[in-house]
From TrEMBL:
Domain of life, source organism: Eukaryota
Protein name: Lipoxygenase homology domain-containing protein 1
Record domain PLAT: where: 1-105
Length: 178
């Protein structure tokens, strides 16, 4: 359910102005905005110079209109430059922050190649895992050295000498990167 059937609009901003809101109508694919699909559109506009941001969103109409947008890449046919705008978020009234439009700034791949994309992946991972840390949950970590469990209880107790077979709850394996 990461695709959308809603009408999608984009505004492109550059050093010489903007395109105004444009509906993305004709994809090179038979069906637009499907999960995992890359759609390609031609948008006619005056040359805007170096691009700096876009605003992309959808109408919010239709069943299953929520949309998970990974990124937008705009190829300037005059300069032959690619401008990447990373999103990696939902445009959905019932997901994420509830917004159906996003303002995205250009990613400078020459300064930090892959860094912003990596940061977005980290944020997505945390969004998927943060439920484990909600109030009332008991966290259990398996200790490979002792072959036992380390338990963090909701009342702030830590049991570092846990049984080798703990009967409470699920086991969460966690890797922490600094």
């Amino acid at each position: 359910n990461a695709g959308t059937e809603a009408d999608v609009y984009i505004s492109v901003y550059g050093e010489r102005g903007d395109t105004g809101s444009r509906q993305l109508l004709r994809s090179q694919k038979p069906k637009k905005f499907l999960k995992g699909q890359t759609d390609i559109f031609a948008v006619e506009a005056v040359h805007l110079g170096h691009l700096n941001k876009i605003v992309i969103g959808h109408s919010g109409l239709g069943s299953g209109n929520g949309w998970f947008l990974d990124k937008v890449v705009i190829k300037d046919p005059i300069t032959d430059l690619d401008y990447t705008f990373l999103c990696h978020r939902w445009l959905d009234q019932g997901q994420d922050d509830g917004n159906i439009a996003r303002e995205l700034t250009v990613t400078d791949a020459s300064t930090f190649p892959g860094r912003q994309e990596l940061e977005l992946k980290r944020e997505e991972s945390w969004a998927a895992e943060k439920w484990k840390f909600q109030e009332g949950n008991t966290l259990q970590f398996y200790n490979k050295l002792t072959h036992g469990f380390i338990c963090l209880s909701p009342d702030n107790r830590v049991d570092a000498l846990g049984d080798k077979k703990n009967k409470y709850g699920k086991v969460f394996f966690m890797w922490i990167y600094a």
